Amino acid sequence: MLRFSCLCLFLWALESSSSQVKEDVDVLVLLPQNNSYMFSISRVAPAIEYARKQLARGPLAGFNFSVRYVNSECGVNALYALVDRARRDRPDLILGPVCEYAAASVIRVASHWQIPVISAGALASGFSDKNSEYALLTRTAPSYLKMAETFATMSQHFGWKSVHLIYLDDKEERNCYFTVEGVHALLEGQHDISVSMMDSKESLAYLDEIVKSIHEHEVVIMCTHTDVVREIMLMAHRQRLTTSNRLFFNIELFNSSSYGDGSWRRGDKYDNEAKAAYASLNTVTLLRSTKPEFENFSLEMKKSYQRGDVDVCEGCNNINMFMEGFHDALLLYALALNETIHSGYSKKNGTEITRRMWNRTFEGIAGQVSIDANGDRNGDFSVISMTNREAGTYETLMNYFGTNGSFQLLPGFNSERFTLRGAPRPPLPEHADQSSGGLGLSAVTGIIVGGLLGTALLMAFYFFRKNYRITIERRARREQCDGKHRQLREDSIRSNFSAA
Ligand SMILES: *[C@@H]1O[C@H](CO)[C@@H](O)[C@H](O)[C@H]1NC(C)=O
Ligand SMILES: *[C@@H]1O[C@H](CO)[C@@H](O)[C@H](O)[C@H]1NC(C)=O
Ligand SMILES: *[C@@H]1O[C@H](CO)[C@@H](O)[C@H](O)[C@H]1NC(C)=O
Ligand SMILES: *[C@@H]1O[C@H](CO)[C@@H](O)[C@H](O)[C@H]1NC(C)=O
Ligand SMILES: *[C@@H]1O[C@H](CO)[C@@H](O)[C@H](O)[C@H]1NC(C)=O
Ligand SMILES: *[C@@H]1O[C@H](CO)[C@@H](O)[C@H](O)[C@H]1NC(C)=O
Ligand SMILES: *[C@@H]1O[C@H](CO)[C@@H](O)[C@H](O)[C@H]1NC(C)=O
Ligand SMILES: *[C@@H]1O[C@H](CO)[C@@H](O)[C@H](O)[C@H]1NC(C)=O
Looking at the record, which segments are called Disordered (predicted)? Predict the structure, then answer.
């Protein structure tokens, strides 16, 4: 009997060791060296190393990752780095780049060579088209289109009609351009949209004009430098725009030290005025979640910064989405590679590995990560606002969950804040506690089209379409005249990239 169970144990051990696949995996990481980026090599490398060590302890320990970090900067050097690196042996996996223009060329070549690319960046809408050029891209951070769902769902619930988008364009990385492009893409068609572009070299030059165009719209959505947000809010406040029937949002996805308590404070004579103005401002940011394992991760990251050469400054070494995303990227790849090899394909079959990374949910370092059927991570976002006007402190009012398109309302939520006077009022949602499902409104299932209603919707659509076109035309004409306003280009990133 004892012998029999020993034999069983032996067989079981044999079985489990033989099912553990052994494979050397050559990973090329393309990120900038410059520590002014939140996703610089020195910040992200410890996260990738952490994932590698965790994997080496687990059931996938048979994978031997050799990770090479190459400075891609943020432009075309990323492509040169890949091509130089791949002269003899092509890597099995590419992590990064994050910057859109660097990513575009790298992903095109990698897809052509069938090398999987996983990035916590490349967030622009154009990368969602996986049919050809970006076929082997998997994104482990939520893209700008996913972020825009937060606005689309709010708009659907609160009945927004007109939206003014304001963004700062640095003409280099163009993060705000791509951010606002996502919102534009999702709100287009159902809203009267206008757009103001600010040149980063003279961002405040046309502030008057921009604030003037706020007058005509119900909802203002900004993506710009924090100091510019303050200037806009101050001017809007002086013109009593913050007290009337209007909603202000700014989008600040990654840098958690630039919003929240005291973000209005500069130590100048306008602080009090800014505090009052910011009472009307809502910030959309990534929902950050943690779990017990995250503490250890976070501690290990801090330790490696102290060892390394990263400046330790307040806030700038907080764990950010890029670190989490690249950590999770390696886990996801390992899961998919394991399955791929078990199904009899090789690690060189990037198409098969990529297919297995898509449409799956797995446990990341900060919580569940759900990759949609198009290889893009579903995003969770928070709306954060000032809830104490005297102290100027902030709370999260609601969370948006991309996997089911619903909002969770938190105790600080007050529907008055988001209801436009004059607009058709939706029934007031109940105050939900932390655990309940919230509005339960789904962006996908929210519309029931009956016969009559369908006709009304069609007419409404036509009307808005027309209205929208008129706005565009008017804006376009104004742009030709004085060049101060610039319509958000409607062409895809693809053609922008081609032109770049
Ligand atoms: C890093 O980037 C910042 C901002 O883009 C720039 O001012 C700085 O010169 C760069 N540093 C190096 C070493 O290239
Ligand atoms: C892991 O890969 C590296 C580089 O390919 C190799 O030098 C090393 O021997 C491998 N380690 C194991 C345990 O296979
Ligand atoms: C984040 O925001 C803070 C406050 O605005 C700023 O000082 C810091 O430079 C920002 N960090 C990065 C990496 O952009
Ligand atoms: C983190 O976990 C690892 C093992 O999982 C352990 O060796 C290490 O000491 C932990 N670090 C901290 C700071 O708890
Ligand atoms: C590796 O793949 C095999 C076959 O699909 C599966 O049974 C096993 O659970 C996988 N291992 C891990 C750690 O996911
Ligand atoms: C890669 O995997 C796919 C299945 O997803 C298969 O059809 C194809 O033949 C494989 N390619 C190679 C080169 O093995
Ligand atoms: C995604 O996975 C689910 C099951 O997990 C499956 O029902 C669905 O068909 C898959 N979708 C695609 C597009 O592969
Ligand atoms: C949506 O998903 C989140 C997190 O995955 C969950 O907490 C919430 O209860 C879900 N809401 C609904 C209405 O299913």
Answer: 479-500
Q: Tokens 């029934």 belong to which residue?
A: 427
Domains and CATH numbers, the chain: 20-143+290-371 (3.40.50.2300), 145-288+380-495 (3.40.50.2300)
Query: What is the predicted pLDDT for the residue at 171?
Result: 87
Q: Considering every ligand atom, which ligand is closest to the CA of 15?
A: 5
Ligand nearest the Cα of residue 299 is 4
Per-residue pLDDT band for 412 (boundaries 50, 70, 90) equals very high
Atom 14 of ligand 2, residue of closest alpha carbon? 64
Residue closest by Cα to atom 13 of ligand 6? 349
Give the Å distance between the CA of 358 and the centre of ligand 7.
9
**The ligand 6 atom nearest the CA atom of 349:** 1
Q: Quote the tokens at residue 167.
A: 């963004």
End-to-end CA distance of the chain: 74
What letter would DSSP give residue 184? H
Average pLDDT, the chain: 82
The residue whose CB lies within 8 Å of the most ligand 8 atoms, and thus the one to mutate among 288, 399, 401, 409, is: 401
Which residue's CA is the closest to the ligand 4 atom numbered 8?
Answer: 296
| ω into 97 cis (within 30 of 0) | yes
Residue 36 CA to ligand 1 center (angstroms) comes to 7
Q: Quick one: pLDDT at residue 314?
A: 54
Question: What's the order of all strands across the beta sheet hosting 219-223?
Answer: 192-199, 162-169, 219-223, 247-251, 281-286, 380-388, 393-401, 406-409
Q: Is the pLDDT of residue 398 over 80?
A: yes
Ligand 7: which residues within 6 Å by Cβ? 359, 373
Q: Summarize pLDDT for 305-329 with one digit per residue, the tens.
A: 888 766 655 555 588 999 999 999 9
Residues 66-97: b if buried by 16+ CB within 10 A, e if exposed: ebebbebbbbebbbebbeebbeeebbbbbbbb
> What are the pocket residues of ligand 8 if the criterion is a CB atom closer than 6 Å to any ligand atom?
401, 403-404, 406, 437, 440
Closest CA to 362 of 60, 157, 116: 60
**Contacts with 186 (C-beta within 8 Å, 6 or more apart), sequence order:** 145, 148, 149, 151, 152
Residue type for 186, please?
Answer: L
